[in-house]
Write a structure and sequence with these properties.
It is built from twelve helices and nine strands.
């Protein structure tokens, strides 16, 4: 049973065996703050428990799927915690930070581990954490105006919410290495060519229609068979994926509190190119 959530940044609808989860923060271009990470696993768990729901679509309200992590929440410490103080040792801060990163990882992973198939309907920008979320979905249907970017390198970060672990199985190691090292934009036609997208549609409306049509087609099959197939497909990947998530959590717990990250955030708000010194 879906429960009401005050100040929800996710809007859930159920129709004809299809549950749709909308990222509902259009005024912030669906930037991913602490509320989203707290609410997403709850929404996915509730949908998973709904026997009438046989397939799930995730989409964004407004012109973008998601521009990634909410940098204001990141800068304030609301997303991953405040910086080390005199009262907190560096090791204690790293321990807390590691715990928070793994919590964010579990939120995104709730999409991948949901027993029902999950289809991402994407238009506009799908950047950073948005791509982490999209890569946790089973299928991606996109609009012609979609722009993907694994942008963390340009923000002095290592992507730590699943893209580096999931995308090799979707687009291959070579494509992922290029995207991860450059942080460059990928347009819809290239995304389709490399396998990041299953289908490209004309616009937002046709993308959502196509995602719902596919979800309804899937829902016509035996939910036991479909969910069994998803579980079998996932079984071969889970161990190595978990090892990869743990490795990047440990890395970022040790290095995310950097001058380069502070410079990247400052440059964003000051609307200037960042100047990184590697510290």
């Amino acid at each position: 049973m879906l429960t009401a959530v005050s100040n929800s940044v996710l809007d859930v609808e159920i129709d004809d065996h299809v549950g749709t989860v909308y990222l509902d923060r259009a005024e912030k271009r669906n930037a991913m703050g602490p509320e989203l990470f707290d609410q997403l696993p709850c929404r996915m768990e509730e949908l998973a428990a709904e026997s009438a729901v046989r397939c799930i679509v995730i989409a964004g309200r407004g012109p973008d799927f998601s521009v990634g992590l909410d940098l204001e929440a990141l800068a304030s410490g609301a997303l991953v915690g405040a910086a080390t103080t005199e009262e907190t040792s560096h090791s204690e801060h790293s321990r807390r930070l590691h715990g928070r990163i793994t919590s964010l990882q579990r939120s995104i992973s709730s999409v991948a581990t949901c027993p029902q198939p999950v289809i991402a309907a994407i238009w506009g920008h799908c950047l950073g954490g948005g791509l982490d979320l999209a890569s946790a979905c089973d299928i991606r249907i996109i609009a012609a105006n979609t722009i993907f970017s694994l942008a963390e390198a340009r923000m002095a970060m290592v992507a730590d919410l699943g893209s580096l672990q999931r995308l090799p199985r979707i687009i291959g190691k070579g494509h992922l290495a290029e995207l991860a090292f450059t942080g460059r934009n990928v347009v819809a036609s290239e995304a389709l060519e490399m396998g990041l997208a299953n289908k490209v549609c004309l616009d937002e409306a046709s993308t959502l229609r196509a995602a719902h049509a596919l979800a309804r087609e899937i829902s016509l099959n035996s939910p036991l068979a479909v969910q069994g197939m998803k579980a079998v497909l996932a079984a071969a990947e889970s161990a190595s994926l978990q090892e990869g998530l743990e490795r990047v959590a440990l890395w970022n717990a040790a290095f995310i509190d950097s001058n380069d990250l502070r410079e990247a955030v400052a440059a964003f708000f000051e609307k200037r190119p960042p100047s990184f010194d590697g510290s």
